[in-house]
Amino acid sequence: MDSRKAFQEILKKTAVVEMPKHRISTFGHTRIKYFFISEVPALPDRSRVREGLVIAESPKIITPELLRDRFEGFGDDSEEFDRWMSEQYGQSFRGLQYKFRNEFHSAKVEYLPLAALRDNIRKTLVTEELQRSALIQGPDASWQVSLMKFVVDECMRSFSENIRNLDEHGYFKS
User: Fold this and answer.
1) CA torsion sign, 122 to 101 to 142 to 149?
2) Tens of pLDDT, residues 51-97
């Protein structure tokens, strides 16, 4: 299977269960804590949870040299996914450059089916009022591609607000 079809299959199996309450900041870095959950292959009574931080640098106005190296720390497929993403969403990234870094913290297998783990983490997010946290569910082996898709979606949600803020501060005036 070619990589484009593989990415599409991975993304079909990816769901953001809980989105962060705040968008990517226009000025300053944004830190989003993530919980990535997946089924453990061949063990239906167990699930894996990965935790980490995605750090989004403040968006920059695009210049030709900023179009490279958009993702760092997301694994071997990141360069190819970046090219694919640019083809799919290129028009949306005109004007601003987003760059992200993944700081993976931990992974553990829980003796719970996926639905129970998902419910437990959702309750934790609500109870602890984790405003800049996300719960993402996807395929175990391709979790980093699913995480990058989440990051792209966050860009899309933040884009218009970031453009407006930069325009209000005079960054687009020649």
Assistant:
1) positive
2) 999 999 888 776 444 555 667 788 888 778 877 777 776 555 556 77
- The CB density around residue 134, as the number of other CB atoms within 10 Å, is 23
For range 141-154, the mean pLDDT: 92
Q: What is d(CA 109, CA 39) in angstroms, rounded to the nearest whole number?
A: 9
CA distances for 92 relative to 57, 106, 117, 119, angstroms? 17, 32, 34, 33
Single-letter code of the amino acid located at 116: A
CB within 8 Å of 133: residues ≥ 6 apart: 18, 20, 32, 33, 34, 35, 125
Both tokens assigned to 150: 């989440």
Q: Give residues with Cβ within 8 angstroms of 97, minimum separation 6.
A: 59, 60, 61, 62, 63, 66, 67, 70
pTM beyond 0.85: the answer is no
